[in-house]
Amino acid sequence: MEFLLECIGFPPDHDSESLARAAKELGETAVWRGPGGAHLRLPLGQGVEVRVDREDADAPWSVVPYFESARRVRVALERWGDLPDSKSDALLEGWANPPLPGKLAHPSMSPDSWPMSMIVTDARRLRTEFELGKILALSMAGFALCVDSIEAAGAHEESSRKSASIQLLGGSAAPGGCVELDAEVLCVNEWVNPLTARTVRLLELDVPGKPLEVFVSPWQLEQDGLAVPEPGSRIQGVFLLTGRSSGGLTSVSERLGRGFG
Q1: What region does 64 belong to: left with phi over 0, alpha with psi -120 to 50, or beta?
Q2: What's the gap between Cα 48 and its chain centre?
Q3: 126 near 88, Cβ under 8 Å?
Q4: Smallest Cα–Cα separation from 115: which of 77, 86, 142, 141?
Q5: pTM for this structure?
Q6: Pairing, β 212-215 against β 135-151
Q7: Which stretches of the chain score pLDDT less than 50?
Q8: Residue 73 carries which DSSP code?
Q9: Sheet harboring 62-67: ordered strands across?
Q10: Where would a tag sit more exposed on the chain, N or C end, judged by fewer CB atoms within 10 A?
Q11: What pLDDT is recorded for position 171?
Q12: How far is CA 211 from each of CA 62, 145, 193, rounded to the nearest angstrom?
């Protein structure tokens, strides 16, 4: 997944090992990631950071992007599980923006709900079991695995504009934590990566409930001849969703009987 670093301004030929060294020299410990191994974060500003992890001394460094969104989304939990390659992460599936209790039989019946799958990066806080339908508060952001199309702003009349489409990837070979999105771009926020001086674009997509913040690789867009996203554009592609729990869970110290962090 290191190619996702392109989404936050690191060119395809950037040396990820140099980022691991920078995180060790200049970064901070990500204490919520777990007690074993090495878990570091290298803040780049504006909520963007490089996450550097190694589960044990013999394992290679994992270097991936992360964005700490200020938005919180309510999610009704349907399934979660551990990831074999990272003890610090968990796969969570459910429904974003579920209806209030007693309003509807199932979130799929609500126009504001959409199916989601994401990688939760503070798995240590997750309990070993959840009851179906438990409501969690999560922060989340998306990183484009592949953008298939970008439709120019104004390509359709106002009356014929489509609502957002969000689908889970199907099949046993589909990567976890990914959704297929087809949505309009509401806003584009630009920021400069301080290490590479490259422009990073944070897109806000018009999805039910709160807008979803996502990043795309400008190198992939250029290679595939796709336009630079702008407000009013429509983007379609596959995105990896990552985030952290921010409510609905008991604390680690409550469960383990000792202080944390």
Answers
A1: beta
A2: 12
A3: no
A4: 77
A5: 0.88
A6: parallel
A7: 159, 249-261
A8: E
A9: 28-29, 38-45, 48-54, 62-67
A10: C
A11: 66
A12: 29, 19, 23
